[in-house]
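Before going further, learn to read the protein records used in this course. The integers have meaning only within a learned vocabulary of local backbone shapes. To see the layout at work, look at the sequence and tokens printed below.
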Amino acid sequence: MHYLRWVLLGLVSAGIGAESFAEQNLLEWWHRSNFGYEVLTHALNGSSIISPSDDDSNCMWYLEQVLKGAVENKLEDLRVLDAWGKLPSGLLYGHLVDMGNYESCLLGNTNSDTKYCLASIHFDMPLPSAALNSLSLRIGTCIPALCSARLLNIWLNDYVNWLMEQRTTQITTLVDESNCAVARKAPMTGLDWFAVALLIFFGCLVLFSTILDYSNFPLPWLSAFALRPNLQQLQHIYRGSSNVVYCLNGIRCLTIIWIIFGHGFMFMLILPNINSYKIVGWAQTPFSMLLQSGSTAVDTFFMLSGMLLVLVSMRELDRNAGKLNVPLMYLHRLVRLTPVLAVAVLLFVTLFPRLDSGPLWQEMTSSYQLCKSTWWATLLYVQNYAAPGRMCLGHSWYLAVDMQLYILSPLLLLPLWHWRRKAVAGIVVIILLLSACVFSIVMLNGLVVFNRDGNLGADSVEMRKIYYTTHVRATPWLIGLLFGYFLHSERSRIRRRCSKWLVLCLWLLAMALLCVVIFGVFPYTQPNMAEMTPLAGAFYLCCSRIAWSLALCWIIWACQNGYGGIINSLLSWSLWQPLSKLSYCMYIWHLLVETAHAGRIQNTVHFSNYDGILNFWSHFGITLLFSLLMYLAVESPLVRLELQFLGTNLRENPKTTSISTPPTVSRQNLVAAA
């Protein structure tokens, strides 16, 4: 019984001179206050199961053994009941979840294995101050593994109705088998073993090619996987070249940092917090707008994509007298995007669900099931139209939009080179028409552009119609296209110096536009402010994407032409360059890292800005590590293989640090047209 006192009840120490209670007093207290003991005892004594099956009968027998062992103070049976959660303390401050003890539950006992289930008990109890129409308690439970979620649901219903003396007909309980877990994992499938074999293959390929590289016996095709040249490529810093738009590295890196930061906070909002009601007040602070306006970050990527595409394409058109090798252009894009994405999809479907476990693990990672039916749409870059609301890797919608615009780009690039100003006017008309289209979609459907309660990325009509469709997201890309053409045309002209006052005014205007876009909807977060109307939302949505893109155009132009000052020094910092090369892998992998972190949590957490920043650094560091591995093993080697296959000569000497390999997709087109 000494062991029981330390392990189950903890170290009970009394102050000097204070009277201590006996162990039996503590056990009696435990029996009277344990929620699991009360529910299961009531289930055993007054079960309302009609015509029980053999499994139900076996379940009840094991349940009886657990309760009998608990009465006899057997540790393994007490542990099953002790793993149950209870009514959370701090309920009125938003502490609505007590997940119990997940690991203790799954230790099982000698009679049978055990099963952990996270139950939800709903109350029709409006809490306007917390922006809640009802209150839902989530409590961890632990039962014999033979017992089904259906039985547990019956027991909880019976107990709650008995406790409330049948007066609470509006109270319902919900226990789903998908919210239950057992210690034993499902056996590996053939696809799982294929994923393991693929990882081993890439690892061995990198190791073998690296050994050959250091032994001065490199093979042409294997040398692409050697660590040394790929690390040199990653570490290489461009300096002093007029053909490099250095500030783009900083813009790209700050954007991916913003995205990782924002998604991390989104997970914090949906995790079981002990102070959930604090989130309501937090959402009314200026700091929260960095998250609530976070979708603007992707517009930066679209704008940069259009701009850089033009700079490289115009150089090729100039060199080839107006001819563009469109099939080769598409091949480059597919080779540089698809391998990393395909590996992510494969691992997400197979090995990712096996990485860890926890009360929320299946709930947080359940989206991998979608990949089994929609993986093809992701790899074909059509998931934003072919599988809305069911996308495999939800954040991959950006790749679909960008690829679709890339495929359509020759229809604009060729007219730009041949007809110049007429094509520019045509693109301006397209921008206006698309803006009118977005405006009409919002107005005709009465869509809520900004919801102060937020849907945190969940599927909705707004997400499908005005968030990840290509025709809605194309405006920043088209503005980037025009700006890239302007930069290309400007090279052949004599540049005139701008006055200091003009530069200052344009900088102030650009900063004002950025602030208005980020904080423009801040007044609608305040409790005394009416909801944003569809008309106001339509104006904001159309104007914000144009304003954001134009502000970025000025920042890039000013930095490139000597008007950037300290901002140019920050954005052109040489250390941004290696990170910029990893940005594509970081975008693909960061959400998987954050999902795993959220799913493995086994206790309630505390919400605050400080906790969010701490989480960001852990997410960023682990994402950076995974991205480095993917870059060295997949992205960079396959790009080098593509160049060798197409007969493109790599100009670098693998024994030197002079690297001139064409950029990977993470930093593609950062070298502007000459």
